Predict the structure.
Amino acid sequence: MTVRVAIVGVTGYAGGELARLLLRHPGASLVAAVARSHQGEALRDVQPHLHGAPAALRISAGVGDAEVVFTALPAGEAARQARGWLAEGRKIVDVGSDFRLRDAADYSRWYKFEHPAPELLGEAVYGLTEFAREPLRTARLVANPGCYPTASLMALAPALRAGLIETDLIIDAKSGVSGAGHTVDEAFLFGTIDGSLRPYGVPTHRHTPEIVQQAAVLGGAPARLTFTPHLIPMTRGLVATCYASLKPHVTGAMIAEVYGGAYRDEPFVRVLSTFPATKQVLGSNWCLVHTVVDEENRRLIAIGALDNLVKGAAGSAIQNFNVMCGLPETAGLEALPLWP
Ligand SMILES: NC(=O)c1ccc[n+]([C@@H]2O[C@H](COP(=O)([O-])OP(=O)(O)OC[C@H]3O[C@@H](n4cnc5c(N)ncnc54)[C@H](OP(=O)(O)O)[C@@H]3O)[C@@H](O)[C@H]2O)c1
């Protein structure tokens, strides 16, 4: 028994990564590879790293008889089509940002458009899998978290949930260029990026309200955030270094115990005793976490590292899909780490 799935936006980076993983997933059958461009062409010709894909799998305009639709589209595009797919009885995992924020007013403020399906925002499950398994089991619409929010929230969640830190947060994060998609723009040319590091989107980055919203949910108190993302000269991989003030009673031993306990049985999270590096997660669904207690300044520094296209996009989407469909959570994701 396999679940029939479609990828909408399959010509993009996240869509291509979804195809890489779903084509070898034992519980999924990729029945439709959807995009506006290249229709009629074989997926393996359009995404040449998928040279093992069946020749018959061609780019199409519709999702066919898919039971689950993965969307990896620019902001607003999944929301324009979601209502129809749900009415047809399909489930949706949106790798984009259309269903991540609870309040439609936040879309006009941060994304600069009126949300096309505001009535769906209340139903969407925010799919940070490790903290959402129960609602995911019955979800028909999943908002897959952004890449920066995944690394940041995985790094901060145990301390937030245990009430060990204040919710006034600072996050300094760095991502490879694939995080921006395959857009042709001077800012992402090799000559612009190579040998150069630059911050961007301060304080307007669209992941800011998402992290604030979910930090408040996890911490049970309103959150504030200063978020500084950077573009680094590599293709994929992301590190988020998060700073929060420790509550007065909190010790380093308490932090170590809470983090060890929170992630002990997680299949895709490892708490390291040293600093993580992007190379350790490339191509895999791992999120590596490391904490430092700065006693002098009474601060927690929590670091999360992941591959933005896997745990930050396609991998976590498939992890969510597995939970939604009652499949083993690790299905299709097990053998991925390059570094055991
Ligand atoms: N890249 C990452 O690391 C990452 C991580 C997490 C989440 N995401 C999210 O995933 C989504 C896709 O990101 P990406 O990096 O894969 O972008 P991308 O490489 O630019 O791909 C975008 C896809 O959407 C299609 N598309 C573009 N404009 C469209 C429109 N107006 N209507 C319908 N389809 C359109 C494109 O193909 P056609 O033009 O052929 O239709 C392409 O397949 C975004 O929402 C992004 O925020 C990305």
Remarks:
- The radius of gyration is 19 Å.
